[in-house]
Specification:
The complex is a heterodimer of chains A (431) and B (339). Chain A is 36% helix and 27% strand. Chain A contains 13 helices and 21 strands. Chain A has an eight-stranded mixed β-sheet with strand order 12-11-10-13-14-15-21-18. In chain A, β11 and β12 form a beta hairpin. The radius of gyration of chain A is 23 Å and the shape is globular. Chain B has 339 residues and is mostly beta strands. Chain B has three domains: 191 residues, no CATH class; 67 residues, OB fold (Dihydrolipoamide Acetyltransferase, E2P) (Beta Barrel); 48 residues, no CATH class. In chain B, 10% of the residues lie in helices and 42% in strands. In chain B, a hairpin with a 5-residue loop joins β9 and β10. In chain B, α3 packs across α4. Classes of the chains: A alpha/beta (431), B mainly beta (339). Chains A and B meet through α2, α3, α7, α9 and α10 of A and α4 of B.
Chain lengths: 431, 339
């Protein structure tokens, strides 16, 4: 990646990547706050959870120890609740039994008050043991671990967070950056009061496409394809693609598959964010969304737009941008998500005048307007202003959550129609 | 390069409950037991130091039976005091599993036994309760992914040509204990039948991903699934689905048939134990290409660089031409590129 650094040194090579994989075991208390606390740190640090054990885990002591041994974590995040210190000590004993011979031994981070954490120290004897009540501190330490010896490595997740901050400051409101790459998916919301970040590894549209299928199920990926394909054939394509990091889709079918994987990866990232207690509703309601990574590198901006709208399911008036890894940022479209009871009238005011659109529930309409557009509606609580971008204003009245027909005979024409609205497929004519 | 004769290291992770294991430096052959142990049931936690009135740190010194020892119910584990003795005895037949930091003892019933066998001829280079590593020389080919437990046996051809799929009817109990070469594809039916017939493992160009999910579970991924469960073992050398074995891979398999072999699933490697100079194999680089729609992978022959091309997907990228077909150069790579 080339980064401009000013007049004196116009360009500078910067190494950007995910760093080395970081496998974490998440040990939490029984309560939701504790579970969310450790999950949130794992998401913020782009760590790969390899074992999850709450203090009320029904597995026996030996089974837990075996699970930890098989998981071979690099780091263990411990989020005890004050009433469950004894139960947490049992988990740490199981960890000691399971990973006592592991080289190097897993590093234990206890996210708690030092007095609580000190009660756990004896159970983790022999392992590097660190205490912190600052989430940011732990995330920084985990990122340092991922960098390893490459101190100059710029982590992809840090770049995405910087992009979210920049977008938020330039638009003056909340901004969401969605990054879908070969092996990672990120959703970062920048707000006035800070960042909410979910970086999920491994989950992506290429080398980790098989993980999307393993987590979401094959049918959830297949439902986005605009053509019929049987499940075994689809699975083979996903698995073969996973063996080929960096492969490019040469056919429309391969492109549609990557788009489908990207949609589910985004939806899963949001679900993980919600599970960790992040504000997924605010992410969906962000007035500005920037798509980056492979999902932003699809040949047509409409493909990126469709993936973003289907994956995120935005809930207001959203300006969508995209920025490929090796390209420039561009405005894609303004998305108006409405949920009319039956019909609504959307008023679009722009430099050329005012346009009224009668929108039926379930419709998906593109209005090719460019420049700044003010949006309001009769029959639905929608109001906002944004730029039409390269494509225009997309009025999405399909409802939330977005439900697709179950039967192929109904679903495929529906999905095909959505693609056709945006001319998202090469076979549907020029962009 | 596809096949290589070199020194390799195979890691063998051990489950909890090790009873004995090979010492560092010991010579082993593929198939030899390098570790044995017991499978444990739900563990019971016993008060130790508190019952004996000892500081937690002193219990280990007072234990009459070392942690990791099998005991029978009633065995005296520790005893303190003279006039008013306090004793800790085993409540069940089992194994002393773990001593906690606060001086309690876990004891677990023995519910089974396990052994771990070497997948290499060589010497043990690391041995602890977590793993045993063996280093040795062998012919080796590294596949795309492998599933199931490690397998050891004699290499046997199950097909007559590299493009043939292994038919279920070719698998029977006479092939028990062997590693079968299955040509371009082994189906889920072949996998389960081979397992039922006692076939040690299967080697093929590919296996259907959907079939692998049926056999190994819904969460299986393209990176393989090494395990200890009683399941079939298969190594996919090239891809998923059907992948004809190219000559540089198939001819050595034919030549090495009858030799002892092993599949190390964690590293997706097939080891064959034959002398380094036993055969002359072409070691030219083998190129593989992912089909434009990702449906298959095949070997590439003569090819030329074609400059930049706009593909039907409208992706514009550097291309490679083979015969009449043009494909993105990103979809072509050598067989031994690390995945």
């Amino acid at each position: 990646m080339i980064v401009s650094t000013g007049d004196e040194a116009p360009v500078e090579e910067a190494r950007v990547g995910l760093g080395r994989p970081l496998r974490v075991a998440l040990l939490s208390g029984r309560d939701d706050a504790s579970r969310r606390g450790v999950a949130r740190i794992a998401l913020a640090a782009a760590a790969e959870p390899c074992a999850v054990a709450p203090t009320d885990d029904p597995r026996s002591f030996g089974e837990l120890a075996q699970a930890f041994r098989d998981a071979a974590p690099d780091v263990v995040l411990v989020g005890p609740d004050p009433k469950g210190v004894a139960a947490m000590a049992v988990l740490l004993e199981a960890l000691r039994l399971g990973c006592g011979t592991q080289l190097p031994a897993p590093r234990i981070f206890v996210i708690a008050d030092p007095r609580v954490a000190d009660q756990l120290r004896p159970a983790a004897v022999g392992f590097p043991f660190e205490i912190s009540s600052e989430v940011g501190e732990v995330v920084t330490a985990l990122r340092a671990f991922r960098r390893g010896a490459h101190k100059d490595l710029t982590l992809r997740d840090e770049l995405i967070e910087d992009a979210a901050r920049s977008l938020a400051s330039s638009t003056g409101g909340d901004a969401l950056v969605v990054d879908v790459s070969e092996a990672s998916t990120s959703c970062v919301l920048a707000r006035a009061d800070g960042l909410e970040a979910a970086h999920i590894v491994p989950l992506g549209l290429g080398a980790a496409g098989d993980h999307v299928v393993a987590r979401a199920g094959l049918d959830r990926v297949r439902r986005w394809l605009p053509r019929a394909i049987d499940a075994p054939a689809l699975l083979e394509r996903v698995f073969n693609r996973a063996l080929w990091p960096g492969a490019l889709p040469a056919t429309e079918a391969a492109l549609a598959l990557e788009m489908a994987l990207a949609r589910e990866a985004i939806a899963h990232a949001l679900r993980d964010a919600e599970y960790a207690g992040l504000d997924a509703a605010a992410m969906r309601a962000a007035p500005a969304v920037l798509v980056t990574g492979r999902a932003a590198s699809f040949p047509r901006a409409a493909q990126t737009l469709l993936v973003a709208v289907d994956g995120i399911e935005p809930s207001g008036v959203t300006a969508v941008f995209r920025e490929p890894d090796d390209g420039r940022a561009e405005r894609v479209a303004l998305v108006v998500s409405i949920r009319p009871r039956r019909y609504a009238t959307v008023l679009l005011t722009h430099a050329g005048g005012r346009v009224e659109h009668r929108v039926a529930r379930g419709s998906f309409t593109l209005v090719p307007l460019s420049g700044d557009v003010e949006v309001s509606a009769k029959g639905a609580p929608v109001k906002g202003i944004g730029h039409g971008g390269a494509i225009g204003v997309l009025i999405d009245a399909r409802g939330r959550p977005l439900l697709l027909p179950k039967r192929d005979a109904e679903r495929i024409p529906t999905v095909l129609r959505w693609h056709a609205t945006l001319r998202a497929l090469p076979s549907q004519g020029a962009a | 390069m596809t096949w290589r004769h070199a020194r390799w290291t195979a890691q063998h992770p051990l489950p909890i409950g090790v009873v004995e294991r090979a010492a560092v430096g010991r010579s082993v052959n593929a198939g030899d037991v390098i570790a044995a142990g017991v499978a444990l049931g739900a563990a019971i936690r016993m008060k130790g130091a508190r019952r004996l009135g000892l500081p937690a740190a002193d219990l280990e010194r007072e234990l009459r039976v070392a942690i990791g020892t099998d005991v029978t119910a009633g065995t005296l584990l520790a005893r303190t005091g003279r006039r008013f003795p306090r004793a800790l005895t085993a409540p069940i037949d089992g194994r002393l599993l773990h001593l906690t930091a606060d001086g309690d003892v876990y004891i677990a019933p023995v519910v089974g036994r396990w052994v771990v066998r070497s997948t290499l001829d060589g010497a043990v280079t690391r041995s602890d309760d977590g793993r045993v590593s063996v280093e040795g020389a062998a012919w080796c080919i590294e596949g795309a992914a492998a599933y199931g437990p490690d397998a050891i046996g004699e290499l046997a051809l199950g097909v007559n040509s590299p493009t043939e799929d292994l038919a279920p009817s070719r698998v029977d109990v006479r092939l028990g204990g062997r590693i079968m070469v299955g040509g371009a594809r082994v189906s889920a039916e072949v996998l389960t039948r081979a397992h039922a017939c006692g076939v040690s493992g299967l080697v093929a160009g590919g296996a259907p991903a959907a079939g692998l999910r049926v056999v190994y579970g819904e969460t299986v991924t393209a990176s393989g699934a090494p395990g200890r469960d009683d399941r079939p073992t298969v190594i996919c050398l090239i891809a998923f689905g059907s992948a004809a074995l190219p000559d540089p891979i198939y001819r050595p398999l034919v030549a090495l048939a009858g030799s002892r072999a092993a599949i190390h699933t964690a590293s997706a490697r097939l080891f064959v134990f034959a002398p380094a100079d036993a055969f002359e194999f072409a070691t030219d680089e083998l190129g593989l290409a992912l089909a434009p729609d990702y449906a298959s992978v095949r070997a590439l022959g003569e090819r030329t660089v074609n400059g930049e091309v706009t593909f039907p997907s409208e992706v514009r990228a550097g291309a490679i031409r083979q015969g009449g077909e043009v494909m993105p150069s990103a979809n072509v790579r050598s067989f031994d590129t690390k995945r």
